[in-house]
Design brief:
The protein is mainly α. The protein has a domain at 44-139. The protein contains 5 helices and no strands. α2 packs parallel to α5 (122-138) and α3 packs antiparallel against α5 (122-138). The longest helix is centred in the N-terminal third of the chain and has 40 residues, at 26-65. It is rod-shaped. The termini are far apart.
């Protein structure tokens, strides 16, 4: 009877130890994948916010300065100064916003972020707005 009890105890102990020693490593992999997704999403949101802010800033500055007054000649001149990297305060501020937009766009591209809402560059939007105003003036 003592031998039977001893065999049962050793068998139960060995089954318990073998069962506890088997770890499921797939749980750790899932955690790291989901944390990478969270980090990627946070970075994408950060890049998108910066790009949206820069784009909105550029649009609003031109809207306040030129488009609200239907001044297409002034807008074209200012756009030329900006593209020429002029040292005026307005051009410096717009160029800083453009550089911020471009840098965050490139980071978003590297991070495989969705860029559907940023397929048109802010300067292209400005040029399109200038063309639209010119067409309205002709009519």
């Amino acid at each position: 009877m003592y031998k039977l009890l001893q065999v049962c105890f050793i068998t139960a102990l060995s089954i318990t130890l073998i069962g506890c020693s088997q770890k499921d490593f797939s749980i750790g992999e899932k955690k790291s994948e989901s944390s990478k997704e969270i980090i990627r999403d946070k970075n994408c949101n950060k890049y998108k916010k910066a790009m949206d802010y820069a784009s909105t800033y550029i649009q609003e500055e031109f809207e306040k300065g030129y488009f609200s007054k239907n001044d297409t000649v002034g807008a074209k001149a200012q756009l030329f100064l900006i593209e020429s990297k002029s040292s005026t305060i307005f051009a410096k501020n717009i160029n800083a916003a453009k550089e911020s937009y471009d840098a965050n766009y490139n980071l978003s591209k590297k991070g495989n972020c969705s860029l559907k809402s940023f397929y048109i560059h802010p300067f292209e939007k400005l040029k399109n707005s200038i063309e639209t105003l010119e067409k309205q003036k002709v009519k």
